[in-house]
């Protein structure tokens, strides 16, 4: 086996909404993949051994190449398995632009609804971890505010549902027409999260019959073909292989990045997460990848999006 024909491995857990986005993408493409279930809360020692410290969910592994963030994952799936396409129309650029809203402000709104509605019923360890991640250093006050402002937050979420209702009102099966696309997965995972984790979610969704029809269609499509894999076996596979990503930096890089530079990468938010360091292997306008070496994982190449991530040189 080589890195190019290694199995797709998704490190995730069932309740993760962002992992659900990727699982839907597997379903759209009809892909076979291996499922490695990770803990919902840190520490996640076998995962962070692969990533160098990145703890968010999900992470995709193909051989010794490790893909962090669903942006990177979806792009890599489209590159390696172009048919059926996650970008079936000529609107790929607009879909990526819209995805920065679905994955950013809209997802943050969903988190506020789900965590805010839980109130004092939210387990303390989960509240501290996710609160710090999504509400910043003053996370406890953020959770209280979300609880108080729940009706307002729901009103803000109801508006996008009405827009989707209009989009689907002509009876089209998917948001762009006859073929499922990345934007279906990107919109769906936010609704899946709210409907599945907030008691009022099903009642809210029932107000939008076209959206409900679309949700049912996505559910029926499934997640492709899944088999189980242990985290230990996934780590052993990475150790036995070498990354296959080409070493290159695109033209006109704004930060003047160069192959071999020591860099550190972290989400461009105040979420209390550690940066991951390594030697730059590739960079373009969409993606950055670094080489990391450890006694446990061997040589791995860890990929991140450029959008939403900060790169520090040195």
Summarize the entry for a quick read.
The protein is an alpha/beta fold and 314 residues long.
Q: How is the secondary structure organized here?
A:
Layout: E1 8-12, H1 17-29, E2 32-37, H2 45-51, E3 59-62, E4 65-68, H3 70-80, H4 92-118, H5 124-135, H6 139-148, H7 150-167, H8 182-197, H9 201-206, H10 209-221, E5 225-228, H11 231-240, E6 248-249, E7 262-267, E8 276-283, E9 287-294, E10 298-305, E11 309-313
Parallel strand pairs: 1-2, 2-5, 4-10, 6-8
Antiparallel strand pairs: 1-3, 3-4, 7-8, 7-11, 8-9, 9-10
Ranges with pLDDT <50 over ≥5 residues?
none
Helix proportion: 40-55%
Mean pLDDT: 96
By CATH, the topology of the largest domain is: Glutaredoxin
Q: What is the terminal separation in angstroms? A: 35 Å
The number of domains: 2
Taking all Cα atoms into account, the compactness measure Rg is: 20 Å
Give the percentage of residues in beta strands.
Answer: 15-25%
Q: Number of helical segments?
A: 11
CATH architecture of the largest domain: 3-Layer(aba) Sandwich
Number of strands: 11
Q: Give the biggest beta sheet.
A: 11 strands, mixed
What is the global morphology?
A: globular
Protein name: GST N-terminal domain-containing protein
Pfam families: GST_C_2, GST_N_3
Domain GST C-terminal: 103-247
Domain GST N-terminal: 6-85
């Amino acid at each position: 086996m080589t890195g190019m024909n290694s199995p797709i491995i998704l490190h995730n857990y069932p309740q993760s909404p962002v992992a659900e986005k990727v699982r839907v993408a597997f379903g759209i493409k009809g892909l076979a993949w291996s499922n490695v279930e990770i803990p919902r809360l840190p520490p996640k020692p076998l995962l962070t051994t692969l990533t160098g410290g990145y703890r968010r969910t999900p992470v995709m592994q193909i051989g010794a190449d490790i893909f962090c963030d669903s942006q990177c994952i979806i792009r890599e799936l489209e590159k390696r398995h172009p048919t059926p396409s996650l970008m079936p129309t000529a609107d790929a650029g607009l879909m990526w632009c819209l995805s920065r809203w679905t994955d950013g402000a809209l997802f943050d709104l969903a988190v506020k609804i789900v965590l805010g509605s839980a109130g004092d019923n939210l387990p303390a360890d989960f509240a501290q971890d996710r609160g710090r991640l999504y509400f910043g250093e003053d996370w406890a006050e953020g959770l209280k505010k979300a609880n108080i402002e729940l009706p307002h937050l729901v009103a803000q979420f109801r508006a996008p549902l009405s827009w989707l209702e209009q989009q689907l009102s002509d009876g089209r099966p998917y948001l762009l027409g006859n073929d499922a696309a990345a934007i279906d997965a990107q919109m769906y995972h936010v609704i899946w999260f709210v409907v599945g984790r907030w008691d009022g979610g099903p009642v809210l969704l029932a107000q939008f019959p076209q959206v409900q029809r679309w949700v049912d269609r996505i559910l029926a499509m499934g997640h492709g073909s899944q088999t189980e894999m242990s985290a230990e076996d996934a780590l052993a596979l990475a150790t036995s292989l070498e990354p296959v990503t080409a070493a290159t930096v695109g033209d006109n890089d704004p930060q003047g990045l160069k192959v071999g530079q020591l860099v550190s990468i972290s989400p461009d938010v105040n979420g209390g997460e550690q940066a991951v360091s390594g030697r730059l292997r590739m960079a373009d306008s969409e993606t950055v990848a670094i080489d990391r070496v450890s006694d446990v994982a061997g040589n791995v190449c860890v990929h991140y999006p450029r959008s939403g991530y900060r790169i520090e040189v040195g």
